[in-house]
């Protein structure tokens, strides 16, 4: 018998700058993951023998993030030895994919509870550490016109008419919203401080927000992907998009998602499992979808994923009160607003990864929790959480407050 | 032997003289290949031989590469392969020179090559399979892989040994563009180990052979690493990957060898040399049997040789005028269908003859709304419009024959990977071409109608190139 999947709780670490001087650099990704797994257990009084799986997203699953960090983190967090763990990689949506897989396991009856989430220590296991075929194997990179995502972001801006002013203005707004959200304590329910080896708090708020960010401060930043494009990747993008005469490189560190460290965990289970131990669900997972779309531009999957999940649920964008779309790059969100004709006031209302950073494997679970908190704060009903994903994919989840 | 002689000197060094009978330069024919087996077997088995020096008997240089006229027959045969047996036999056939030079490299005795003048393609591959290479220090030296220019790839270890000598990214201009390896580069990377005036080369090579009885190729030594870190190392990500992307400019991926050369380098350098050579042979076979490759060999080698012997050549102007008119007319129609101007300009630059009036078409179609799936159709219409115009010009006698038509068109910017507009028809298959043209005529108008003479050719099964 199929049952629904519910979210009982969500926690996340604050995000530390992903550099050697970042606040979380001295902790292993294993420790980050174990702390959020411990926190979600402790604050729900959860008997981990009821947790039928731990699913963690991780996008660079090599080095100290390798060899199934989910199972190892569960054991280190003190979960019962009977609780298994699995690591998943759907690039930037890994943390949300983990939640969707958890929902599937719960809905099918395979699991009572699943703790899903993700972890990424970008300061310790850098981008591209996992190698792979995508960037360098000619059977894909050449035959399918691979270009790195920054080129795709700039291509979106070029193709759909967003200039430097547009993307910078979006970035300024992201910082403004994130700073306001922190000032009003809107993240208080989900953020758990990260402690060091001695138990001293290392970080209790997102480290990368710069409330003073303005169009003027951003104007000084040089385009980050100009040289990369000139090295050959613009040619790949233009091979696929003959309608573009040249790429306008508008993105830089200030209007792209920040490189940060962090982890998140979401407790997902069936209503019956919750009732059995006196836990009240906070939201129901109505549905989810992952999609593939054109891989060279890479980052236009979210609108496709949104339409797919809403169509299947018999809903329209008008039925959604709140949207979270990961701010991988400003143009990704601007295009999403444009193509779905959305009110910007409903999208990323508390800022996003441009201000607070994007710890790859964890972000999807983080923004799911942020959407849930915001639904509760405002008394609204439905939220759609969405990320653009490498190689042209997109992943979306719809939740409804209960 | 007709092509090799072996003289063993008093110290046991065999001087192998490569001197193809009846030709001005050494080329690698089937007969050369067969005799080379005998050479290698002699070096391996004769206990009196301590090592060998390979020299050319030609003033023109070391070796000019494959006998393309013979290769063309093999390519036609390989193109027919469908069954497992045929595919297997074709790959084995395609790798024959590769296996022979590998046998030389692993014969157990030191082998040195003396390079004066040109060492091209399969000839340079032979030299790279020798343990030591001395080259003449004068401007006649020419080390290059011209294969890609005729739609082929170096199939006897060129894509394997060159990146193992100079790193995966540094090889690309040489393998993909045929850029000659300059003497300074050759020396610093190890493509050539030493240089000397022509008169001293043989003695230098002899001395090296005597002093290195246990010589093996670097890639046969335990712990060998591709310099620069290889395709999955820093060289791969930092340089090879963007250089590969840059090759997509101007639709460079339409050339039949480019992608396969990249795959040989990427895949082949991550495995031991013998595996790399087998991988290369498979991609060589795939390339050589492709319609594009066969079209390019014909136009850029066979026809070019024939045309060079003609006392009189056609005036290119009448044909080119027809082609340009066809392009202009098609662009106008496409513009009226709201194909964006950038698309027309980009695709004309890639698949149309160059024109003074290029970029003059005014089109207002929106770039943001352009459906990517349409790009292939736009490209096809531009190509078919030109090809039909070329066939019409042939019918009217504006150009004397298919060789001239193809040569004139490709030299004016008609895409090289087709071999030219007439060659394009053969590449598509005559029946398929007519069927597609009929479709285009039904959808877009009578300008795509094929002539009765072409239909007659199809019925008679009579190709333009016989």
TrEMBL record, chain A:
The keyword Mitochondrion is annotated on this UniProt entry: no
Signal peptide range: none
Enzyme class: transferase
SUPFAM superfamilies linked: Thiolase-like
Pfam family, one: Thiolase_C
UniProt EC number: 2.3.1.9
Domain Thiolase N-terminal residue range list: 6-271
Keywords, in A-Z order: Acyltransferase, Transferase
Occurrences of domain Thiolase C-terminal (ranges): 279-401
Gene Ontology MF, one: acetyl-CoA C-acetyltransferase activity
Family: Belongs to the thiolase-like superfamily. Thiolase family.
Protein's name in the database: Acetyl-CoA C-acetyltransferase
TrEMBL record, chain B:
PANTHER family per record: TRIFUNCTIONAL ENZYME SUBUNIT ALPHA (PTHR43612), TRIFUNCTIONAL ENZYME SUBUNIT ALPHA, MITOCHONDRIAL (PTHR43612:SF3)
Gene3D superfamilies membership: 2-enoyl-CoA Hydratase, Chain A, domain 1, N-(1-d-carboxylethyl)-l-norvaline Dehydrogenase, domain 2
InterPro entries associated with the record: 6-PGluconate_DH-like_C_sf (IPR008927), 6PGD_dom2 (IPR013328), ClpP/crotonase-like_dom_sf (IPR029045), Enoyl-CoA_hydra/iso (IPR001753), FA_oxidation_alpha_subunit (IPR050136)
Name of the protein: Enoyl-CoA hydratase/carnithine racemase
Pfam families for the chain: ECH_1
Species of origin: Aromatoleum toluvorans
Source organism, top-level taxon: Bacteria
